[in-house]
């Protein structure tokens, strides 16, 4: 049995969604950020960065959204959410997973937490730079989706799950992901997935899921 530490509408939502997609048993602990439940000594012992998600796997904590997603896909290969080592799509899968986690996702951190790189002074400049980089990344995803339904190969993988959650985070930005036509078509399809709709219901999220 897995135990997921998350919080509504966060990177934890991605793993919550994936556990529902996989249909495996799990326990969920939604941390209240306003109460600082992600900064307690007990939680920092599990996730020293004091962020979500953390997934307890066989009694040990695993952190990092993209890493957890790939781990779960590999622990449940029957779902086909990660191309196996040696398969033709494997390189694309790894490359895009790492691009999303290392090159794209950090700009969201800068957008939502501009004080971290900027301190008190330059937060607007940091947000403007983050916005430009997020929009460049969205344009790249949009171009990739011109003639395809999924980002890797011809079936849903954890890359689609990560990309969809990151796109969700743009919903209140000046130019949301749905402003790009191929991304809009793709996200409309993703938003029909029962497990994504279910995770919205379970986390009490009412915006974005219906367009
Ligand atoms: N690189 C980490 C980033 C996780 C992250 O930034 N989580 C945010 C929510 S989306 C969080 O926990 N923020 C609370 C905080 O930083 O205090 C991952 O991919 O798991």
Q: How would you sum up this structure, described in words?
A:
The chain has 211 residues and is of the alpha+beta class. It folds into 2 domains: 2-79, Glutaredoxin (3-Layer(aba) Sandwich); 90-193, Glutathione S-transferase Yfyf (Class Pi), Chain A, domain 2, CATH 1.20.1050. The protein is built from 9 helices and 4 strands. It has helices spanning 11-22, 41-46, 65-75, 90-112, 115-118, 123-144, 158-168, 181-190, 194-203, and strands at residues 2-6, 26-30, 54-57, 60-63. Strands 2-1-3-4 form a 4-stranded mixed β-sheet. Strand 3 (54-57) and strand 4 form a beta hairpin. The longest helix has 23 residues, at 90-112. The protein starts with a strand and ends in an 8-residue tail after the last helix. The chain binds glutathione. Glutathione binds at residues 10-11, 33, 38, 50-53, 64-65, 109.
Annotation field: number of helices = 9
The unique ligands bound to this protein are: glutathione
The helical percent reads 40-55%
Q: Main sheet: which strands, in order across?
A: 2-1-3-4
Judging by the overall fold, what is the CATH architecture of the largest domain? Answer: Up-down Bundle
- Give the number of DSSP strands: 4
Mean pLDDT: 97
